Amino acid sequence: MKGDVVLKKRILIIVTVLLLTTIAHARETGSTFESIFNGHWAQKHVEYDFYKNYFEEHISGLQSEFKLNNTINKEDFLEIFEKATKSKVDVLLVKEEMQKPLLRRTAVVWMMDAIEVEEESIMSGKDENKFIDLEELDNNEVEAILKARKIGLINGHSETIFAPNGKVTYAQAMVLLQRLSKSQYLRRELTPLDASNLVPFKTIGTITEHREQREGLQITEKDDVIIITVVQRFNTSGYQIEVSNIVKLADSKYGININIVRPNPNHMVLQVISFVRTTIEVDKNHVDSDYIFEVLNLPKGVER
């Protein structure tokens, strides 16, 4: 009789241990796609493969019960951005800044930096602005938001509210980057090119001015050379633009890669809008007669 009682106690202990182990294991493995997305608005928008390939390792490390509502920082967004889209945005931010929450306005600017905008239908859209909360943004940000909406990359909180200063959650980041990765306008990263595809050029100089100028690419011809000027707007002085290389992309089409040199953080800079113009020369003999140049990585805004 006594032996039966002891045996029952032992069985009870074993069952209890197994039950607790099962519960613990269930908690550890409970962060599955289904459990994380169950009842969340993003459930019907995010595909399992996209989550598994690009977000699972980030999401699983979060401590919050409502993981999808956590704010994503700039560093994580950019890391996933490059993997998911096979594209790259040149962002010059210090480590401390990269750890800060990503704002909706910044996310859209970065996304549009990876978009081909050759079609005129994308370029024109300012007259269709229905958002009433973009007044404090600069022209680059407004233009990026309107273009992104026009090609279906973003939606506002409503028809008239975009909330540009809202923080991007992991759920929002997933939806945005999944849309971007499938966009027909996404500029895919080029495969490595050999020296035969590089076009020689000569740098004439860089000038900084404070009067309003047209941003982008300006091309003229003089004798046997093509004069190319890249113009970019910055919110402070002290920035420089350097052309790193020119590469042939296809018949008659050439891409210009640039570097943005930030001001020395130890030096005082004028808090005034500046337009930086960098000019180079290309010998006509090195390009096709019906050449087309484009800047591959000119940022739509540089965050300070």
Task: Write up what this structure looks like.
This protein has helices at about 1-30, 35, 50-60, 75-85, 95-100, 105-110, 120-125, 140-150, 170-180; strands spanning about 200-210, 215-220, 225-235, 240-250, 255-260, 275-285, 290-295. It has about 300 residues and is α+β, with helices and mostly antiparallel strands. It folds into 2 domains: about 40-180, no CATH class; about 195-295, no CATH class. It is globular. Mean pLDDT is about 80; it is low at about 20-30 and about 300-304.
Number of helices: 9
Q: Spans with pLDDT under 50 lasting ≥5 residues?
A: 19-30, 300-304
**How does the overall form come out from the CA principal axes?**
globular
- Count the domains: 2
Name the helicity range: 25-40%
- Beta content comes to 15-25%
Largest sheet: 4 strands, antiparallel
Helix and strand element order? HHHHHHHHHEEEEEEE
Structural class estimated from helices and strands: alpha+beta
Order of the strands making up the biggest sheet: 1-6-3-2
Terminal CA distance? 79 Å
Radius of gyration: 26 Å
The average pLDDT is 80
Please give the number of β-strands: 7
Per-chain topology:
Elements: H1 2-28, H2 33-37, H3 48-60, H4 74-85, H5 95-98, H6 104-112, H7 120-123, H8 139-150, H9 170-182, E1 202-209, E2 216-222, E3 225-234, E4 240-250, E5 253-261, E6 274-283, E7 292-295
Parallel strand pairs: 5-7
Antiparallel strand pairs: 1-6, 2-3, 3-6, 4-5
Helix pairs in contact: 3-4, 4-9, 6-8
